[in-house]
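Methods: example folding runs. The two proteins below were folded one after another, and each record is reproduced exactly as written to the output file, sequence line first and structure-token line second.
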Amino acid sequence: MKNYRHLTQAERDRIQALLDTGQKQKDVARILDRDKGTISREIEKNRKRIRWKHGFKDGPYLASLAQVRAENRARKRRYRWKKINQDDGLRKCVIDGLKRFWSPDEISGRMKKDNCPFYASKTAIYQWLYSPWAQAYCPYLYSQRYRPRKNRGKKAGRASIPHRVSVHLRPLAAAWQMGHCEADTVVSGRKTGSQAALSVLFERRAKYTDFEKIPNLKPGINSRAQKEMLDKLTTIRSLTMDNGLENRCHETLGVPTFFCDPYSSWQKGGVENANKMIRWFFPKGTDISQYSKEYLEWVKWILNNKPRKSLNYRTPLEIMTENNLLKTPSLTLEIKTPAVALRG
């Protein structure tokens, strides 16, 4: 039995061309060396539907339309497990089934048999179980093949942050009040073999950016760098970060910390935008350990003395100084552009 592979754009173009010349589906399958069931399903799912007086009828097969529909379905399949979190009734049904030691296939089949107003396939349930939201229910799975996944680098760390508080509990005043910050990291390129990174701190209201070079992303090292940057501020009300393993020691910072939802970096969009500007000076693929301290200070000066339209064309440093948010008036004097030897 041949291994199944998805149809490509080129194959869909050939299907349309062969059908337009009057070829039958079985002949198309033979020419493309595909199973005739594959061709039949492809045409049935992706052919154009034409509206007429009695509803809709089947229209011609269009390769471009078929490709768009296939890509949309694939995109939706990737995140279909999220609907379990969004639907309270569906989530309760799945959890109740797991606690009764039903398999995901049995839970899915029972929902269909009972004509429940909601539904999730067994694949969606497995994907939900592997997400950070549901790994606590993995022990209810009967088969030992589906134990919770072992820790594999950063991704596993997202689910192992102690006393994690959701960003949805962050005070609403964070939108306009001074002292609410966001944190993130900028890493070296993989091909360089370097583990060096930048630990970035961003003040949301003033758009003030600070960062420190760290040798690696170990939680203790990143936490110390964050603490050094926080100590420069007179007022710090909260810190928002992502679910990376480097943020495990957030409790040592002594400030309220909040964490974004998985795969939702837009919830800390300020620091993400700051990272984009930082990347102009530290391009992707470079080794951050090779940049000098003087170069880092110069980049900070550039970013914090840059007029922003959202600040009525004032600079982040001016806003920080007006509100007495800096313990020492750092970056107030112009720093000369580093010479050719910016790195090393």
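Second run, written to the same file directly after the first:
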Amino acid sequence: MKKVLAIVLALVMVLGLAACGGGSSSGGQTTVKAQHLSLGHSNNTEHHYHTLSTKFAALVEEATGGQLVVDVYPSEQLGSGTAMLEAVKTGSQDMVLDPDAFLANYDDRFQVFSIPFVMTSWDQVKKFPGSDLQKKFDAIAEENGFVILGWTANGFRYFSTTKEVNTPNDLNGLKLRVGQNAVMASLYTTYGAQPTSMSMSEIYNAVQTGLVDGQENPIANIVGYKLYEVTPYICLTGHVYTWEPLIMSKAIFDSLTADQQKALKECGEKACAEDLEYCSTSEQADFDKCTAGGATIITPDKAVWQDAVKNFASEVCAKYGDEFTKLYNEYVALK
């Protein structure tokens, strides 16, 4: 009888603790069990993606009193950029930093950002976050199962190749690595290159084995993957500016409390704004790292590059229709 009574009392105590919130109690205070959220990105721990991610994680933990803990996984530990985005879509991964071009694989309207020579300066870039157009793209992302917590820089894109490139004619016949995006691939075909899709982590070896003759990326990524070692000619075309939104699974986001959702958005916007400001001033330091590593920086006549694709925007807009064209025109108007 005593044993039965002891078991009953133990059960009562366990149920009592559960009724107090499911946490442990010490000194009369209840400790809330943290919910861990995964955040993956494609670059190394010295890259600004990682600085942003760890800053965001610290802000979130502080803002939620430890209720939410963001675990950061750099260097494609959770898979390639496209694989991580698909995992976020399905809810098996919580968050990812990924370029806007990958979102275009789920909704053609994100192809707006892949049209060349729209953004031409960092001052222009900074007018997008907080704009009505940004809010429209946030809504488009939600239609596709994603929540964008903030917009930061992937950056202005430059060609890095094994041979010197000054004009579009110099790309003719070159095998060029591109990300998995149809409009970007079409752009490089227009320039005469032969685009080949592969993940960031494959580029270095692909150049060494002759699978590709070059690639194009923002300078921070060229430095992050040390691509200047194997593609030492860097042509500063700035042909496309690519965003790097902080993307969360909508299903996971919707499962959180209103206060937690608010904290994630506020922390995401803050961390991304700081990172965007950093990116706007850090390019020269990255150019210097490339030249110190033996690379040649080429400053081309951009007018020649623009003229070679002067009909590209109208062709893409005609393909994707009126709503797409309206979004594109709004993007162009951010002067």
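Comment on the second run: The chain is about 45% helix and 20% strand.
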